UniProtKB/TrEMBL annotation, chain A:
Chain residue ranges for the region called Disordered: 24-86
SUPFAM superfamilies attached to this UniProt entry: beta-carbonic anhydrase, cab
Source species: Penicillium vulpinum
Co-factor requirement: Zn(2+)
Stated name of the protein: Carbonic anhydrase
PANTHER family (UniProt xref): CARBONIC ANHYDRASE (PTHR11002)
Family: Belongs to the beta-class carbonic anhydrase family.
From TrEMBL, chain B:
Alphabetical keyword list: Lyase, Metal-binding, Zinc
GO biological process: carbon utilization; cellular response to carbon dioxide; cellular response to oxidative stress
Protein known as: Carbonic anhydrase
Any matching Pfam family: Pro_CA
PROSITE patterns: PROK_CO2_ANHYDRASE_1
SMART domains membership: Pro_CA
Length: 296, 249
């Protein structure tokens, strides 16, 4: 069910590839953002020193005294100014870069924001991990308006979780997306936690489905080196998550009535590359699922 | 990371708009297949462009994440966290659900906050709403939306908490916009109610909680300028968990 092979090189694909990357405008933009990225405030450095905490109040004083770095937001004592007092702080950078991004986007395409303001018609529902290294719209090369997103710890799906259930309901039933993607990734902290035996408080009930998978596949996972076992459990988790999506009657109906497709992906944080799992079910499995889960 | 060229993207989108006009199942199947194929091609191009700029970009990421931000936003496709903030892969931990809610009993968002604060030690938590939010709109509508009802009821509760202020706004659109802002502020309060946030702030002076609203009409973020320390004090009057022995959630 719902497996797409990466084969064809049709006209549409070629066109898509050509128009989405070949313009000098987007190359220039890439360049300028890349430059920012390699500037002193490298993402992996810590802008706050844990050993020398500064109180909010003293931040405020500092920023009021030297507002120069924050001319975008002249009011004193705002949180923006507080963060802006530290030149390496990426929070202030985020707000500033947003202004640049909005201006650039509006210049390049004056009708984009008005169009977005009129509604959304995303084709893809993305269920992925909260991990900062997995920004879906970025690594899919897509745009605002393309991907409806739910991200949680370790892209776990619980049948009774109201949050993800509401997301799936809204995306499939109301937005009528064409693809539902469950994406796991390598080096996932949630998966690693579930392969360990440390009490993590409130995280434990959330990671419960991962431990169930660990139990069911114990021998296999124990036979593997740690990182390989983590990747394997991430993969099993994606398959299990897809099963839970497919057990929802609205999803089964959408598959039958309008060809909704489901995909299981793994994102390799070490290479940035996405790969698709073969998640095709046998006819027997599909029949059993329809019998047990489809409601009218 | 590239800035998308919106003009070209729009042309691309128009190709997709044609999908609704495709009659046959075969055409639909072909279309669906192609629309996913181009994503994998985009992904490969993104990888190449990152490597051109920084050969060890992915090596560094594979070593682990240490984001400074937790972003809690709406699932809405028009509000992609990294793009609107101009941040890179590795910089922001992201949770997105319908209408950027932080319900007190939602294990999903609570586990995200817990992990981000206690394990990743984020310095800022941003709750970001957006104008034209379909979830908030739905919550203002007297309609039975089945499974969505209990989730959206949280927004009706926000209305009830601020009933007087909202009822006094005569213009319907202005009232809707204000509810979107108040919904963000209530989500911020719910974040501040957690033991993880209260204890970490007491020990480390972070994280700081911020409330933003993204305007789809111009692409700009509006900072609601929440006075974090004042909110924290206010919330702790009733919800103080900072010195409890049992320090979970």
């Amino acid at each position: 069910m719902g497996v797409v092979r990466l084969t064809g090189q049709s006209g549409l694909i070629a066109r898509a590839a050509g128009i989405s990357r070949s313009s000098s405008g987007s190359l220039l933009a890439t360049q300028s953002r890349a430059t920012r990225m390699t500037a002193p405030s490298v993402p992996h450095t810590k802008p706050f020193s844990i050993s020398t905490p500064v109180s909010c109040a003293s931040h405020k004083n500092t920023s009021a005294a030297s507002p120069s770095s924050l001319d975008i937001n002249p009011q004193p004592k705002s949180q923006t100014d507080i963060a802006g007092a530290d030149p390496t702080d990426r929070y202030a950078a985020g707000l500033r870069l947003n202004k640049e991004w909005a201006a650039q986007t509006a210049r390049d395409h004056p009708s984009l924001f008005p169009t977005l303001a009129s509604g959304q018609t995303p084709q893809i529902l993305w269920i992925g991990c909260s991990d900062s290294r997995c920004p879906e719209t970025t690594f899919l090369g897509l745009e605002p308006g393309d991907v409806f997103v739910h991200r949680n710890i370790a892209n776990v799906l619980h049948p009774g979780d109201l949050s993800s259930s509401a997301v799936i309901e809204y995306a499939v039933q109301h937005l009528r997306v064409n693809h539902v993607v469950v994406c796991g990734h390598t080096a996932c902290g949630g998966v690693a936690a579930a392969l360990g035996n440390k009490n993590l408080g409130i995280l434990d009930p959330w990671l419960f489905p991962l431990r169930q998978l660990r139990e069911r596949n114990l021998k296999l996972l124990q036979s593997m080196p740690t990182s390989e076992a983590a990747s394997k459990l991430a993969e099993l988790n994606v398959r299990e998550g897809l099963n839970i999506v497919k057990q929802k009657s609205i999803v089964l109906n959408a598959i039958q009535e309008r060809g909704l497709q489901l995909h299981g992906l793994i994102y390799d944080v070490g290479s940035g590359v996405l790969s698709e799992l073969d998640t095709e079910d046998s006819e027997e499995v599909i029949r059993a699922r329809l019998t047990a889960f489809q409601t009218e | 990371m590239r800035l998308p060229n919106p003009r070209i993207a729009s042309q691309f989108r128009q190709v997709f708009v044609q999908r609704d006009k495709m009659a046959s199942k075969t055409e639909m199947h072909q279309y669906l297949k192609q629309s996913l194929d181009h994503i994998f091609q985009n992904n490969k191009k993104w990888v190449s462009s990152k490597k051109e700029t920084d050969a060890s970009f992915f090596e560094k990421l594979s070593a682990g994440q240490s984001p400074d931000y937790l972003y809690i936003g709406c699932s809405d496709s028009r509000v992609p966290a990294n793009e609107i903030m101009g941040l890179e892969a590795g910089e922001v931990f992201v949770h997105r659900n319908i209408a950027n809610l932080v319900p007190n009993v939602d294990l999903n968002v609570m586990s995200v906050i817990n992990y981000a604060v206690r394990h990743l030690k984020v310095k800022h938590i941003i709750v970001c709403g957006h104008y034209n939010c379909g979830g908030v709109k739905a919550a203002l509508t007297p309609a039975d939306l089945g499974l969505l009802n209990p989730w959206l009821r949280n927004i009706r509760d926000v209305y009830r908490l601020h009933e007087k202020e909202l009822d006094e706004i005569p213009d319907e659109h202005a009232r809707y916009n204000r509810l979107i802002e108040l919904n963000v502020m209530e989500s911020c309060r719910n974040v501040i109610k957690t033991a993880a946030v209260q204890q970490s702030y007491e020990d480390n002076h972070y994280p700081i909680v911020h409330g933003w609203v993204f305007d789809l009409g111009d692409g700009l973020l509006k900072d609601l300028k929440i006075d974090f320390e004042a909110e924290l004090e206010d919330v702790k009057k009733i919800y103080c968990l900072s010195s409890g022995a049992n320090s979970e959630h």
